Amino acid sequence: MTQPHLARHSASPWRLVWWRFRRHRLAMAGAVVLAVAYLVALFAEFVAPYSTEHQQVDHGGAPPQTVKVVDTSSGGWDWGLYVNGYTDHVDEETLEITYEVDHEQRIPLRFFAEGEPYKLFGLFETDRHLIGPADPDGPPVFFLGATVNGYDLFSRIVHGSRVSLTIGLVGVAASFLIGVVLGGISGYFGGWVDTAIQRLIEFFMSIPTLPLWLGLAAAVPTDWGPMQRYFTITVILSVIAWTDLARVVRGRFMALREEDFVTATALDGVGRPRLIFAHMLPSFTSHLIASATLAIPAMILAETALSFLGLGLRAPAVSWGTLLEEAQNFATLEAAPWLLLPGAAVVVIVLSFNFVGDGLRDAADPYKS
Amino acid sequence: MGKYVLRRIAYMAPTMFAISVVSFVIIQLPPGDYLTQLASGLRERGEPADQAYLDALSARYGLDEPMPVQYLQWMKGILFHGDFGMSFEWNQPVSALLADTLPFTIALTLGTLLFTWIVAFPIGIYSAVRQYSLGDYVATTVGFIGLAIPNFLLALVLVYLSRMLFGGSFVGVFSSEYAHAPWSVGRFLDLLSHLWIPVIVLGTAGTAGLIRILRANLLDELRRPYVVAGRARGMGERRLLIRYPLRIALNPFVSTIGWVLPMLVSGEVVVGTVLALPTTGPLLLGALRSQDMYLAGSIILIVSVLTVIGTLLSDLVLAWLDPRVRHQYR
């Protein structure tokens, strides 16, 4: 037997899953994007040039500035990161102020720039940001433009990733718990218990989810704090989202029940809970992880839609959904189309999760040819 | 078949009951009751609250009674008199508001369903027959993106683009000059020019899902021995495809109504709000914001019930088309 064969036959199941997953190029790309996104969320205060409270009222609706590496305006090649500044223009009749990128002005940038002080993880006090204007007292920079109220959109997207990226994980964890328990009971015991749980699942699947979510979200008291709201919304989302997972678990249990090793374990006198959780469940964990990954994007989209409609999270909480709420007005949108950029972040993350989930699903059963 | 129909309808009864209970619970969730809100609303507008009127309403909806009695009263009103309660915000019976918005909502949903089928059918077949061709990759990519874009974002982008490219407003159902005009060819064309955006926005995710399912099913069928046997006997490719595999692969077109319909209804809430359509979606959102709970609960109730009925119809059609389905249930 040759060496690679030996490696394949002696490798652990998880190693086999990893090898198979690695071959799925889109899934690998998705995994890299997600890894970067979660790192950004983790170090949000450091990555974002400004905090969520940093408001530049006199720059409301300023357009995005392109980061430039080299300045050729003076004839020679002048290296160094910079952005162009703004000129403002006041409309005589409406007194509306519009901003335009001024190619004459130059605002130098630097990495690890000095900015607002913050506490990373609530522990380390520092005032360094990944990138920012070299002169902390000089004019502000808006890489992705400013919101109507003068907040830096880039910083807000970075800070908003905390909520938007975690709500899917927390929500799926909650629905996972319900789904595995109910799906397991349904699939293992069968009979009338199964029928009852199946009817319940069919009920949840047949009703339109958004109206129900909205109805429940509207009942959340408006005076609750952001954290309380966040968890309530997560619970509301998972109350309905567990059904898909429960179906997967049930199907697997149904198939496994007939397997010889299950009969053997039962005949050995192993109790039911132990049989279910120690012997049956581990044999399809990879399938569960794949299904859970595919359930996350639906959660992210749901939170975005709820917050967009104003019934999910609310300002001052920053999430991609609450940021998009500002883009609801077409007049605003026409003046500041960059307000749609948080939506691009949503699409990229949801696509990545879908690719990774597809890759995991294909790799979940490494013993299949 | 008759037995299957009866069984399916019997299964639906508990679902309907559960929906009505959930809708009622939503009505009861916010603090305070409908009458106190009505009375304070009247006082805000400077109108004196007519105590006799309030008492009559209280008796009518059994507001002094315990919860289960209130629920029964509400259901009795709906089932026997078509009375869903009052909307205090609009100061109109809920049934009148529903009558204004439901027909258009149903028409929009069914229209989108048709659009989904018409688009997904040829693309799905093409993707399966020419697997791994350029067209297949394009369809798969577009499908992936279609599933990833939140539909309100798609609506915003489409409206923004159409305003930039063609100018004019595409929000609402009619342009201002046709808004109150009698029906004419021009008005109908104006309606169509406004409706393409909501139909595309609502239909994209469903179309993408349907293409994926049709492609997967057809690929499974095309690899079956009977297809190979048919080809070996010299059957033409077109006939070979249409005769059997397509017929079997088409089943999901009927059965997916079950999940496309709830999705469309959910999407309609968001898209209707963004595009300012006269549908139940914006009405529901407004009702929830102002805690106009009879209106909100009734919309959730009726929209869910209609979805369940749609799913039931699709199941029955499927059983009629495919004997395997009705035998499963026996």
Structure description:
The complex is a heterodimer of chains A (369) and B (330). Chain A has 369 residues and is an alpha+beta fold. Chain A folds into two domains: 55-151, no CATH class; 158-363, MetI-like (MetI-like fold). Chain A contains 14 helices and four strands. Chain A has helices at 3-10, 13-23, 25-42, 44-47, 153-189, 191-206, 209-218, 226-257, 260-267, 272-280, 285-308, 320-325, 330-335, 341-363; strands at residues 68-71, 78-90, 97-120, 124-133. Chain A has a four-stranded antiparallel beta sheet with strand order 1-2-3-4. In chain A, α2 crosses α14 (341-363), α5 (153-189) packs parallel to α8 and α8 runs antiparallel to α11. The longest helix of chain A has 37 residues, at 153-189. By secondary structure, chain B is mainly alpha-helical. Chain B folds into two domains: 31-83, no CATH class; 101-279, MetI-like fold (Orthogonal Bundle), CATH 1.10.3720. Chain B has helices at 2-28, 34-44, 51-60, 67-81, 94-129, 134-148, 151-166, 185-222, 225-232, 237-243, 245-249, 251-255, 257-274, 280-289, 293-321, 323-328; strands at 86-87, 92-93. The chains are: A alpha+beta (369), B mainly alpha (330). Chains A and B meet through α6, α7, α11, α13 and α14 of A and α1, α6, α7, α13 and α14 of B.
